[in-house]
Design brief:
- Helices cover 31% and strands 23% of the residues.
- Strand 1 and strand 2 form a beta hairpin.
- The radius of gyration is 24 Å and the shape is globular.
- It is built from 12 helices and 19 strands.
- By secondary structure, it is α+β, with helices and mostly antiparallel strands.
- The chain folds into 2 domains: 7-205 and 355-444, Zn peptidases (Aminopeptidase), CATH 3.40.630; 207-352, Alpha-Beta Plaits (2-Layer Sandwich).
- It starts with 13 loop residues before the first helix and ends with a helix.
- The strands form 5 sheets. A 6-stranded mixed sheet has the order 1-2-6-3-7-18. Strands 8, 9, 16 and 17 form a 4-stranded mixed sheet that branches.
- Helix 3 (127-142) crosses helix 12 (428-444).
- The structure holds zinc ion.
């Protein structure tokens, strides 16, 4: 099979293929409705991806955590790459969050091209990168240009529901397929932010951790007509209010500091604790994402108690969504316990670790050089993501994880709003730019 692709097929560039692959992937509806939801089209997408790799002679393995929850793993380590170097994991997820078609200007699963952009669910999260990666790898194989080091290409299921059928499952059940990788590259980063008249490319080096909390108050059950000094509903309600209104102090993570320093330099201002919010406001919609990573956050989101109005229940419970700064998990939990007080117990019902990787590495320098070669004057900065990605799973195997999906974006595009948003779309120019940067990156990484 290898060697089958000959000069007959060279000449097709990644830029010629990337839009078509992105549209094909968008047309495969891989909506992820969460646990118990109907199995998505992940299997169809996985077969499509495996087919594109197979066409250029890259063998892949598809493994399913459950029927149709398919993950594709393909080692790409051709003759000419330096096999003394540890492999680099490059990953993209194949699932998407659902889309309500009636809210959209186009059919979210049509992959329509309009106003110079590819529209559809997954256009930026993250079938854009899946397509860029496939297009670039295919071009390089056709041109017999190996990557600098061995690569593991991984396309996962279930990222949008925590990866328990995808990356998390792979790490627990097939760690051998990826465990020799020392670094991982995937979402969410590499896109440009226009600051003044310069472009800053954000490299994701860290992710907040997640702790879903259950707050439990026990009290004395009894008749609603009598005095009750130990009412669980009252205790719980007070604790929930304290937690929801608590103003978490700023804790600037080093990734966040790097971001603020770069922005400050580009704007010619010194950003201190008192001017963070004001500076973020000048950056437009990115402030929604970056603003949430200045501190821990907790949002109460569920309440449950009682079954009849004249019966005081013996227990009341609440749910809250906690997100903590990486590396500060224990102090976060301790602070939550202090806020809710001794009468309310705190249980963690679901937890995902925070992730952090160093910024001053050769891999990040390879990102910077690849970007600067295609966008002279481009600067980079680290940043801390408020949400979670498959990086959390890979980091359990000790990998340093980075978000690097290179996209040069128009200054006026609300890119942050595209993630899980209505009318999600990616400019065709940005996809083509991303292919060129990714191609350079594979020579340097
Ligand atoms: Zn994503």
């Amino acid at each position: 099979m290898i060697g089958f692709m000959t000069t007959a097929t060279t000449g097709i560039m990644a830029a010629d293929e990337v839009v078509g692959i992105a549209r094909d992937l968008i047309r495969i509806d891989t909506s992820n409705y969460g646990p118990g939801g109907d199995g998505p089209g992940e299997r169809v997408a996985a077969e499509y991806v495996a087919g594109l790799l197979d066409e250029v002679g890259i063998a892949s393995t598809t493994v399913e955590s459950e029927s149709r929850r398919a993950n594709v793993i393909a080692p790409w380590e051709p003759e000419g790459c330096d096999k003394s170097l540890p492999p680099l994991l490059i990953h993209g997820h194949l699932d998407v969050v659902p889309a309500q078609a009636s809210d959209w200007s186009v059919d979210p699963f049509s992959g329509e091209i309009r106003d110079g952009a590819v529209w559809g669910r997954g256009a930026v999260d993250m079938k854009d990168f899946d397509a860029m990666l496939l297009a670039v790898v295919r071009q390089r194989v056709r041109e017999n240009r190996p990557p600098r080091r061995p690569i593991r290409l991984v396309f996962t299921a279930d990222e949008e529901s925590g990866g328990r059928q995808g990356a998390v499952w792979l790490v627990r059940n097939h760690p051998d397929l990826v465990a020799d990788c020392t670094e991982a590259v995937g979402e969410v980063g590499g896109f440009s932010l226009t600051v003044g008249d310069q472009r800053l490319y954000l490299i994701q080096t860290a992710e907040k951790g997640l702790a879903w909390l259950r707050l439990i108050a026990d009290g004395m059950a009894g008749h609603g007509s009598m005095r009750n000094a130990d009412n669980a509903v009252t205790e719980l309600a007070e604790a929930v209010a304290m937690l929801g209104r608590y103003e978490w102090p700023y804790q600037i993570h080093e990734a966040q500091q790097g971001f603020l320093d770069a922005v400050g330099e580009m704007l010619g201002v010194k950003i201190g604790p008192g001017s963070v919010e004001e500076t973020l406001a000048r950056l437009g919609s990115i402030s929604r994402m970056v603003g949430a990573t200045m501190s821990h956050t907790v949002n109460p989101s569920m309440l449950e108690a009682g079954y009849k109005v004249n019966v005081i229940p013996g227990q009341a419970t609440a749910g809250a969504d906690g997100r903590f700064i990486p590396g500060r998990r224990d102090e976060f939990i301790a602070q939550v316990e202090e806020i809710v007080g001794p009468k309310v117990r705190v249980e963690i019902t679901h937890e995902q670790t925070g992730v952090e990787a160093p910024f001053g590495t050769d891999l990040v320098e390879a990102m910077r050089r690849s970007l600067a070669a295609e966008d002279p004057g481009a600067r980079i900065a680290p940043y801390l993501l408020s949400a979670g990605t498959d990086a959390k799973a890979w980091s359990e195997l000790g990998m340093n994880c980075y978000g690097f999906v290179p996209l040069r974006l128009p200054a006026d595009l609300d890119f942050v709003g595209m993630f899980h948003g209505v009318d999600e779309r990616v400019p065709v120019d940005s996809l083509e730019f991303g292919c060129r940067v990714l191609d350079r990156f594979l020579d340097l990484a």
